[in-house]
Amino acid sequence: MKFEWARPGSIRASVPVIQKYLATNQVRRIHIGAGGNILAGWLNTDLEPQSADIAHLDVSEPLPFPDSSIDFVFSEHLIEHLPHAVGAYHLRECFRALKPNGRVRVATPDLQFLIDIYTQPQHTETQAKYVRRTLDQGFPEHGFYTGGFVVNHFVRHWGHQFIYDDKTLPHAISHAGFTNVRRWPVGQSDEPMLQNIEHHGDAISPAFNLMQTIVVEGTKPPATG
Fold first, then answer.
1. What is residue 110's DSSP assignment?
2. Which residue in 100, 107, 121, 208 has the most C-beta neighbors within 10 A?
3. What's residue 53's pLDDT?
């Protein structure tokens, strides 16, 4: 599998960045789909790197890491941009690359927040602001503020391919082989290295990020035999 917009030149330029990170970090943390959210101590990667410090990585291809060599993998608002089959492949690759007891953490928009906006007769203040912002940006000529426009806009824009919920995302992570699959609030985890790393709210308001994001972690089982 390969996305048509992958850039071979970016791949070649990223090899030294990846090799240096793996050689100089005992605890290896891979941040996939970093955008402008640069995490200290992580190998920050993106399909379209915004700086030389971010490695090119195409998640529709095998991850450029040896088997059982990575401690943590984190992605934020990435998997919803992948067709469901590509997302499943990517999670299997995360499982392969992670060490036994390594963790994956996936943050992505939650389908439930769209359902709530569509079905709730009375919106919260945050929901109302989200509806108004979405329609002002996506349908400025209309001026009719209703959840139906939000749902249509969200599932069709920004390259979204599949929007997960609290059933489909844990299932996808479990199906890739992970155990101890658990949902966490944004920014929270019982693993210190996975706390407070969501920053999609730097692109949207923190209140919007909390409202729309589901976060799920899974652990690769320990080696047996």
1. B
2. 107
3. 84
Query: What is the C-alpha to C-alpha distance for residues 69 and 157, in angstroms, rounded to an integer?
Result: 35
Q: Where are the domains of the chain?
A: 8-109+164-200+213-219, 114-153
CATH for 8-109+164-200+213-219, among 3.60.15.10, 3.40.1160.10, 3.40.50.150, 2.60.120.260? 3.40.50.150
Q: Among the residues of 25-68, which ranges form H helices? A: none
Tell me how far apart the alpha carbons of residues 215 and 189 are, in angstroms, rounded to a whole number: 10
The Cα–Cα gap between 28 and 24 comes to 9
Residue in the structure block whose two tokens are 């990585």: 57
Positions of the chain with pLDDT under 70 = 1-13, 143, 201-203, 225
As a whole number of Å, the CA-based R_g of the chain is 18
> What residue has token string 């390969």?
2
Tokens 């290896």 identify what position? 28
What tokens does 66 get? 């040896």
Is residue 208 within 8 A of residue 126, CB to CB? The reply is yes
Q: What is the pLDDT of residue 203?
A: 67
- DSSP assignment letter at 164: B
Give the strand order in the sheet containing 179-184.
55-56, 43-46, 29-32, 70-76, 98-109, 213-219, 179-184
Query: What residue type is 6 in one-letter code?
Result: A
